[in-house]
Amino acid sequence: MKRALSRKYLWDKTPSAVKSGLALILEGIPTSVMLGRRFRENLRFIKQAQWWDIEQCQAYQLAQLQRIGRLANDKCPYYRRIFHQIGFHPAELKQIEDLTALPTIDKQTLRQNLDEMCAVPSSSRGVDYISTGGSSGVPLYFYINASRSAIEYAYLLTSWERAGYRLGMPMAVFRGRVVKPDRAGLRHEYDPLLRHHYYSNYHMTDENMARYLKHVASIGECFLHVYPSSVATLARFINRIGMKAPTNIQGIIAESENVYPDQRKLVEEVFGCRYYSCYGHTEKLVLAAECEYSTDYHVWPTYGYFELLDKEGRPVNTPGQRGEIVGTGFINTVMPFIRYRTGDYATYVGDHCEACGRNHVIIRDLEGRWPSGNLVARDGSYISMTAINVHDDTFARVRQFQFYQNTPGRAVLRLVPAPGFDDSDQRRIHDNLGRKLDGRLTFTIQINDSIPLTPRGKAIYVDQRIPGIESAEVSESQQQTGSS
Ligand SMILES: [Zn+2]
Predict the structure, then answer these.
(1) How far is 342 from 327, CA to CA, in rounded Å?
(2) Do 314 and 178 fall within a single domain?
(3) Which CATH number characterizes residue 397's domain?
(4) Which helix (H) or strand (E) holds 404?
(5) 34, 70: one domain
(6) pLDDT tens across 16-52, in order?
(7) For the whole model, what pTM was predicted?
(8) In percent, how much of the chain has pLDDT > 90?
(9) In a 3-state reduction of DSSP, which class is residue 270?
(10) Protein residues near ligand 1, an ion, with CB under 5 A
(11) C or N: which end of the chain has fewer Cβ atoms within 10 Å?
């Protein structure tokens, strides 16, 4: 894969032994200094801009849309052609609503027009070639500015601060990084630049989880940075063996998979701290982070332009109504994304938060293209994982689980049992799930030694193989934030 030699890239490629050697030197330097001038400038801007009134937000968004529109028209053959076809010129973009004259695009558009959508030759300096998606499906490739990380990290940091995180605090990361065992056999790696401790969530055996948690307990006041599935596995383990969660964990930041309310509840109970969720994606078009006072997501108005569209492509602005998230990015000037349909869905709440005072669009119940998947009932309707609520104590003595389905109305539930699992667990699972499925779907239990995660270390709750039903793996796309 072609990549610019950005500072971050070089750092990522630095052997961990060298990083550890640098740790002593780096410990004394404030993290904001190490992250560079661009990061600090963005941070200053974002901290101010989050409190803008509606007029300021809209004026900024309009200016950005005009900038991106001109760039697309001047430099990208694809957009110039489309604009010409519909008789649109960026100079006519006088108010934000004028954007709706443009057609939406999707991943198919990208696949068919990749080079023509670029504003600079893709071999230029400062351009990264990025892919999203799992190995079994067709990955999506696109180009983006190598400098995006400094901007992205400033937004994430400002978001995480709402949950109590402070720059420089150690972070214990369980997010799909491939981590080799150290000399003591612990799958742990330390990055002194960001003060991140990485642990392998591909190896969540009881023995390893006990060692991970013991190590996390030794790193001082810290946050967990997790996939919802990886922290749920840790929480179930802690509950099952009756241990106490490390008390130095100040909060949990969960990203890149769907968050299920009962899963959140379980994790908050076990760890005794806030479970804080952010939504974003690799394409860097929309970033939304929870309020400090609720679990509603606030969409950052200066990160990209956010739209919620119904099935007919009409804007959703009625509270309680659901729509697809469509984004126009302000960060990517290598390959502009204008009105990109993300395939992610949310419920509209409003455009102002009474609790915190921010004038941000507020959404909730985010459902992404992440590998969660749906089951298909006997009558062809979908059954979501949220409805089944697989995060109560049903799976208390189960390490991993996954539904396999190739026929509507029938499924196989694959289980990787934890120690102590017996017939009574099988019966409980049958009874509890059977009640929720209410005859719409029947299933048999299959005991497995392991269930593979996606190439990025996420759990797939439904291995969906019914022809014509898009499988979770194929549609996987997610942000790899901070540590990507
Ligand atoms: Zn708020």
Answers:
(1) 7
(2) yes
(3) 3.30.300
(4) strand 398-407
(5) yes
(6) 667 666 666 666 677 777 788 889 999 999 999 999 9
(7) 0.82
(8) 61
(9) helix
(10) 291, 353, 355-356
(11) N
Q: Which alpha helices (H) appear in 274-313, and where do they start and end?
A: none
pLDDT at 216 over 80: yes
Interatomic CA distance for residues 264 and 261, integer angstroms: 5
Cα-to-centroid distance, 359 and ligand 1 (Å): 9
Structure tokens that stand for 179 in this block = 């981590």
Of 324, 403, 372, the C-alpha closest to 476 is: 372
**Cα 482 to averaged position of ligand 1 atoms, centre (Å):** 23
Same domain, 295 and 332: yes
Q: Does 354 lie in the same domain as 207?
A: yes
Q: What is the residue range of 432's domain?
A: 374-453
Per DSSP, the residues of 150-210 read: HHHHHHHHHHHGGGT--TT--EEEESS------TTS--EEEETTTTEEEE-TT---HHHHH
Residue pLDDT, tens place only, 440-464 = 899 999 999 998 888 778 888 888 8
Q: What is the mean pLDDT of residues 192-215?
A: 91
**Ligand 1 geometric centre to CA of 47 (Å):** 15
Count how many residues are written for the chain.
484
In a domain, 152, yes or no: yes
List pLDDT tens digits, range 95-122: 999 999 999 999 889 989 999 999 999 8
Confirm whether 461 is domain-assigned. Answer: no
Cα 404 to averaged position of ligand 1 atoms, centre (Å): 39
Residues 160, 293, single domain; the answer is yes
- Find the CATH number of the domain harbouring 3: 3.40.50.12780
Q: What is the pLDDT of residue 122?
A: 83
User: 376-408 pLDDT, tens per residue?
Assistant: 888 887 777 766 766 667 887 888 889 999 999
Q: How far is the CA of 223 from the centre of ligand 1 (A)?
A: 21
How far away, in angstroms, is 297 Cα from ligand 1 center? 8
For residue 469, tell me if it sits in a domain: no
Residue-wise pLDDT tens digits, 187-201: 999 998 889 999 998
Residue 479 within a domain: no
Q: Are both 216 and 328 inside the same structural domain?
A: yes
Are residue 341 and residue 429 in the same domain, yes or no?
no
